[in-house]
Amino acid sequence: MNPIRAFRKWRMYNETVRELNKLNARQLNDLGISRGDIERIARQAV
Q: Domain extents for the chain?
């Protein structure tokens, strides 16, 4: 894999995790997400 592409994917994963972790339990529930799903969702985003 291209190192630049890998870096961009890593950055997008981290940004997604960071943003979802800012949400409280009610906001996550409104989106149909549990706190345990955050990493899986972030992986799917990239």
A: 1-43
Tokens encoding 38: 């955050």
pLDDT per position in the chain (46 positions), as tens?
799 999 999 999 999 999 999 999 999 999 999 999 999 999 999 9
CA distance 44 to 7: 16
| Long-range CB contacts (within 8 A, 24+) of 7-15 | 9/46, 12/45, 12/46, 13/42, 13/43, 13/45, 13/46, 14/42
In 3-state terms the chain splits into helix, strand, coil percentages (rounded to 5) of: 80, 0, 20
